[in-house]
Write a structure and sequence with these properties.
The structure holds two protein chains of two kinds. By secondary structure, chain A is mainly beta. Chain A has strands at residues 5-7, 10-14, 19-24, 30-38, 45-50, 56-59, 62-67, 72-77, 86-94, 101-102, 106-111. Helix content of chain A is 0%, strand content 55%. In chain A, the strands form two sheets. In chain A, strands 2, 4, 5, 9, 10 and 11 form a six-stranded mixed beta sheet that branches. Chain A has a five-stranded antiparallel beta sheet with strand order 1-3-8-7-6, with no helix packed on it. Chain A starts with a strand and ends with a strand. Chain B is mostly beta strands. Chain B is 0% helix and 50% strand. Chain B has strands at 5-7, 10-13, 19-24, 31-37, 44-50, 53-57, 64-68, 74-78, 87-94, 104-105, 109-113. In chain B, the strands form two sheets. In chain B, strands 2, 4, 5, 6, 9, 10 and 11 form a seven-stranded mixed beta sheet that branches. Chain B has a four-stranded antiparallel beta sheet with strand order 1-3-8-7, with no helix packed on it. Classes of the chains: A mainly beta, B mainly beta.
Chain lengths: 112, 114
């Protein structure tokens, strides 16, 4: 993996469903992995910053895991609500570089 | 409110012109990042400054330049503008300079080149 890739590109779930998305990133020289939530007409908002292999973080109904050896992270949303509708971005940082490289995001739509 | 302020919110200008986008980071944040989001594209990293010095550079065109001032606000200068430069330009700030802490994004400046 040379770039940050996210899948699926978009997702449509019903209220109450649990869902998850994947972020794949270069595993060599890994430093940090960020998840952001981006609502339409707003700016991206940080959810998690993860640095350690096996790390798991949780904020309310949203949680994330990290596997730095194989270069992937999962974001889970339990019991999706309409207000969870947004684009979820991940970004990785590797080596001595300081730049966060973003994926193109997973667009989640939650309907009643 | 993230605490990051970007001005102006919208800008319409003609091809060949030059514009300056301004960013005031969150109080206490030393790093400023600039990103470009074009239609149907993700956030493309342009440049990062940390405490007044350039820290990292992305795919920033030679027609673009940036700087961070002693009060830590930053400006992104775009010159000889082309239609393809129309995009949403985001500024973000963070405490650290290595990306190990979360970045806080401004509301963005939407640039339209006509």
């Amino acid at each position: 993996i040379l770039n940050v890739e996210q899948s699926p590109q978009s997702l449509h779930v019903q209220e109450g469903d649990s869902t998850n998305f994947t972020c794949s990133f270069p595993s060599s020289n890994f430093y940090a992995l960020h998840w952001y939530r981006w609502e339409t007409a707003k700016s991206p908002e940080a959810l998690f910053v993860m640095t350690l292999n096996g790390d798991e973080k949780k904020k309310g109904r949203i949680s994330a895991t990290l596997n730095t050896k194989e270069g992937y992270s999962y974001l889970y949303i339990k019991g999706s609500q309409p207000e969870d509708s947004a684009t979820y971005l991940c970004a990785s940082l590797g080596g001595t570089a300081s730049k966060l490289t973003f994926g193109t995001g997973t667009r989640l739509q939650v309907t009643l | 409110d993230s605490g990051v302020t970007q001005t102006p919110k919208h800008l319409i200008t003609a091809t060949g012109q030059r514009v300056t986008l301004r960013c005031s980071p969150r109080s206490g944040d030393l790093s400023v990042y600039w990103y470009q989001q074009s239609l149907d594209q993700g956030l493309q990293f342009l440049i990062q400054y940390y405490n007044g010095e350039e820290r990292a550079k992305g795919n920033i065109l030679e027609r673009f330049s940036a700087q961070q001032f002693p009060d830590l606000h930053s400006e992104l200068n775009l010159s000889s503008l082309e239609l393809g430069d129309s995009a949403l330009y985001f500024c973000a700030s963070s405490v650290g300079g290595r990306g190990g802490t979360e970045a806080f994004f401004g509301q963005g400046t939407r640039l339209t080149v006509v």
